[in-house]
Amino acid sequence: MSADQTTSTDRIDARDAFAALGRISLGSESMDSVLHRIAELAKTTIPGTAEASVSLVVSDRATTPAATGQLAVDMDESQYGRGHGPCLEAAVGREIREITDAREETRWPGYARYAVERGSLSSLSVPVPVQDSVHAALNLYGVEAHAFGDDAKAVAREFASYAAAAAANMYLYESTRQLAEHLDRAMASRAVIEQAKGILMAQRRCDAAEAFNILAAASQRSNRKLRDIAAAIVDGVADRPV
Question: What phi, psi does 81 have (nearest 5°)?
């Protein structure tokens, strides 16, 4: 057994891992930290796993945001460079892909040769559905052939379902938070623009439409954002002595 192989005494019960995934606090985590937690728990939960990683495919670009060791990173990136491999097929095709013995693998011969050279004779990639436009896979790498038996595959499938729920919830939480931040900025911009319009209407005795056109023209001439022009007008009035 290699130094990287997780021993049976290091492993944790699958139910404890599932509970840990269910206890993830969205407010104190990020997507990266959740994916790292998923990879770490997979390594210590699923029998036969020497290293684990999570592949993400967004807009046809594949990355590995979380991995437990360099072996997993190298295996993933070798597939990305070739444009094919079990982790990509599992992520995009949403079907489990397994290599039982890389020395006998014929579906991805170039990748299989590299896997043998790096010392990963078997692997299991399980889809982790996050969102329609975000494809993911949990990748498990073994150093021995036939590292993943029926029990390991059953645990991996169930683990992936819990991981998918945690990742999807985190994705929704971050998306909602970003939307709220965008709305806050939009409301702040609208407020300062309305203030600037009011100042211009008072100074130039014009209506709201003409005041907005003045702001828009100034924005075009100076190549500055309209809200920055508005803020400068508001700040200029605020800085005047009463």
Answer: -65, -35
Query: Tell me: the pLDDT tens digits for 50-78?
Result: 999 999 998 889 999 999 999 999 999 99
Name the burial class of residue 157, with classes exposed (0-12), middle (13-18) and buried (19+) by CB atoms within 10 angstroms of its CB: middle
Residue 177: partners with Cβ closer than 8 Å, 6 or more residues away: none
| CATH code for the domain defined by 8-177 | 3.30.450.40
Mean pLDDT computed over 11-30: 76
Least confident of 85-94, 179-188, 194-203: 179-188
- Alpha-carbon span 91 to 66, nearest angstrom: 15
For 238, counting Cβ atoms within 10 Å of its Cβ (0-12 exposed, 13-18 middle, 19+ buried), the class is exposed
Q: Where are the domains of the chain?
A: 8-177, 181-238
Instruction: Identify the CATH class of 181-238.
Output: mainly alpha
SS (H, E, C) the chain: CCCCCCCHHHCCCHHHHHHHHHCCCHHHCCHHHHHHHHHHHHHHHCCCCCEEEEEEEECCEEEEEEECCHHHHHHHHHHHHHCCCHHHHHHHHCCCEEECCHHHCCCCHHHHHHHHHHCCCEEEEEECCCECCEEEEEEEEECCCCCCCHHHHHHHHHHHHHHHHHHHHHHHHHHHHHHHHHHHHHHHHHHHHHHHHHHHHHHHCCCHHHHHHHHHHHHHHHCCCHHHHHHHHHHHHHCCCC
